[in-house]
Amino acid sequence: MDTLTFGEINYRKFFETAIEVSIIGVLIFAQSIPILAWEERIANVTPLQVKIDTGPISEEFTNTFSKEKRQEEFNDRIRKKYPKAAITDVTSGVKHIKLIRYYNNRPVRINIIEVDNKLGQNYKLKPALASNSTLKAKNTIRTIATREKAIVALNGTFFKPQTGVPLGTLMINNKMYTGPIYDRVAMGIFENGSVVSYDIKRVQFNTEIKVGEKIFKVDNINQPRMLSTYLLIYTPEWGSTSPATPKYGMQIAVKDKKVIAISSQSIKIPEGGYVLSGPEKIVSQIALGKKVELNIKTNPEWKNVKHIISGGPYLVKNGQPFVDVTEEKLNSIGGRNPRSAIGYTADNDFIFVAVDGREGSSVGMSLWELAEFMHSLGCVNAMNLDGGGSTVMYVKGQIVNNPAFKGGIALSNALVLAED
Predict the structure, then answer these.
(1) In what order do the strands lie in the sheet with 398-399?
(2) Which of 240, 224, 373 is nearest to 232 (CA)?
(3) Among 69, 165, 215, 363, which residue has the least CB neighbours within 10 Å?
(4) How far apart (Å, rounded) are the C-alpha atoms in residues 182 and 249?
(5) pLDDT for residue 374 is more than 50
(6) Strand order in the sheet with 379-384
(7) How many Cβ atoms are within 10 Å of 24's Cβ, its own excluded?
(8) Residue 93, SS3 per DSSP
(9) Among residues of the chain, what percentage have pLDDT more than 90?
(10) Is residue 20 pLDDT above 60, yes or no?
(11) pLDDT at 338 over 90
C-alpha cells in the first residue's frame, strides 16, 4: 500500500541519520582525548579515517520496525473487520476467526483463516495429496497436515469417493496430476521469490502430443473417461496399469519420449513415463519406437504457475458475487450444506472458510449465501471447494469446525499452509 511505503521511507531516513550522527559523535569525542605517551611525552592521536557502512544496520532496523508496524496494522484490521468474533493468533500474519452469522434467524457457525502474505513468509500455500505416491488414496486431514508440517489445512478438490482420485485440475510443484472436468474453476498459485500471488479462472486442458509432423489433441490426464473418443494420458500416479481400453481403442506406453509398447488391452504404466489411451484410428498412427513429444498446457496459459487446485463454482468474480453452478454442471450441490471456500483480497491476503451445516446449531449456507459472505470479507475472487461431509478445517493440530464424522472423513487432498 502507498501509505506503508511512504512510512518505510521516513523511518529509513530517521534511522540512517540517527546512526550516522551517533558514530560521528563518538569519533570526534575519541579524537579529542590526549594520550599520555611513553617518557611522559604527550602526543595527540592522529585523526582516524574511518568509513562505516550504516546501510545494513539501518536496513535491519527498518525491516524490523516495518514488520512490527505491519503486524499492528494487521491486528487492528482484523479486530475492526470481525468486531464480535473470537480471534486467535496462529502465527505471525495468520489469524483464526470463529463467528456465528444468522440467516432467516437460523445460526450458521463459521471458521475463517486470514493470511497476510507479507507477514507469513515462512509458510507456503499449496495443495497436498493423501499419498505422495498414488492418486488412489484417502487420508484424514490431520494425517495430511502432519505429514506436510502444516499449521492450517482445509479440504480440497472434489474426488471420486470409491478411489480417492481428485476430480478436476490439480498441479503441485509444477507437476500436473489431474486435468479439468467441465472446465471448472480453479485457483492458480504463483511464487516469485517471497512474493505470492493468485488467480482464479475456469480452466481448459490445452495439451498436445506431437509425433513427427502430426499433432494430436489430448483431452485429459489421470481422469475418468467421459467419452470413448477422448485421448487420455495416465501417469504412474494413477497406478501400475492403465484403465481398460475403450471399445475400438488402443493404448501405447511412452518412456523417455519413445513408444515402448502397444496394446489393445490395459497396459503397464512405465516409471517416469505414461500411457496414451484412445480410439484406435488415432493411436494406431503412432508406431513402436517413434519419438513422442508431450506438451501439457492449460487455458488460461498460466506461465510460472506453481500450484493449481480445482473447485467450483465461482463465488466471487472480479469483485462481484458470481455463482455459475449450471455452467460448471454442479447443480447437485445446491441447498444449505456445510461449505468450504477460498479466496483472496485486493491486498493479496488469502482467506480460507469452513461453514458447518446439517445440524440445529448450524444450518449451513446456500452457494449464493456463501458468495455474498466471501464478498463481504473483501474477496475480489473466490471459489467453492468440495463441501458437505468433506468440509473440515485443521489449525495447529486441532480440528476447529464440527464435521459430521468426528475428525472429518478421509480425503483425497487438502490445501495446506505449511512450513517453507
Answers:
(1) 123-129, 413-419, 150-155, 393-395, 398-399
(2) 224
(3) 215
(4) 23
(5) yes
(6) 86-91, 94-103, 106-115, 350-355, 339-345, 379-384, 314-317, 320-321
(7) 12
(8) coil
(9) 80
(10) no
(11) yes
Residue 66: is its pLDDT beyond 90?
A: no
- What are residue 345's DSSP bridge partners? 379
Q: What is the pTM of this model?
A: 0.84
Q: Which three cell numbers stand for residue 18?
A: 540517527
C-alpha cell at 193: 521469490
- Average pLDDT rounded to a whole number, residues 177-196: 95
CB 43 within 8 A of CB 37: yes
- Of 384, 306, 305, 373, the C-alpha closest to 342 is 384
Give the Cα separation of 82 and 353 in Å (integer).
Answer: 14
The two most distant CA atoms of the chain are separated, in Å, by: 110
Q: Which amino acid is at 97?
A: I
Task: Report the C-alpha gap between 318 and 192 in whole angstroms.
Answer: 23
Helix 55-81 and helix 2-31, axial crossing angle in degrees, nearest 10: 150
**pLDDT attached to residue 183:** 97
Confidence of residue 126 (pLDDT cuts 50, 70, 90): very high
Instruction: Record the cell numbers describing residue 420, joined without a space.
Output: 517453507
Q: Which three cell numbers stand for residue 188?
A: 492458480
